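Supplementary Text 2. Reproducibility record for the structural model of the 242-residue chain.

All settings were left at their defaults, and a single model was retained for analysis rather than an ensemble. We include the record here because the model underlies the residue-level annotations in Supplementary Table 4.
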Amino acid sequence: MVTRSISPPFPATRPFYIGVALVAVIIAFVGFWPTYFGPLLAGTVKKRPLIHFHAAIFVGWLLVFVAQTTFAARGRIDLHIKLGKIGIGYGALVIVVGLLATFSEFAVRVHAGTVADAQGRLLGPLLDMSVFAPLFAAAVYYRFKPQLHKRLMIVATTALLIAAVTRMRFLGTPGHPALVMLVWTLPILLALGYDFAKRRIVHPVYVLGLVLLLLESPMVRRVARGTETWQSISGWFVTFVK
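Retained model, structure tokens:
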């Protein structure tokens, strides 16, 4: 059996990044607690099996993210690499299941006659996957360049948190745009601040991530939903699922 060296190309990361991963988990659970996790524990949630599966896959991704961060921080790069091989397939599963759940819910709403609502709700999840997928692919591509890899993974995982943040009732409905962005991008901002404090630089991956998230922010989504372009695109999907 061939074993990999776990020295220099894959140095142990700082324990700080475990905290960043846990912040992402907290954001997800706080956001989804009122509408999913709380009712699920109370036995009152009514969702189709695919949505439960989608939720399980999402939670699993967060657990993998925490585990990978912990392995790297503790210097167990051998375990990080082993789990990473599984994580590549799991990340692809996140995308596939996310798209299946999105179009499944879209079809249900269209068949129920709430076409306008279906068109409006379709944009967000598609943007989520459109941002997560290339970031995840880049993280996989640069998996042997840890300084790029870990930052891309932080940004990719943070991109998935928007659905949780927009469900945080204490932020208001629809919530102040600046406050929503602050909570949503908190993992990136923490990592960026840590970089600046330790290295006196801001890594371009974090800048790119913040720009991408700003371009798909809830405020931008609300504007985009009302454009003729989106109405045309989503209208085509309506005809496709009927």
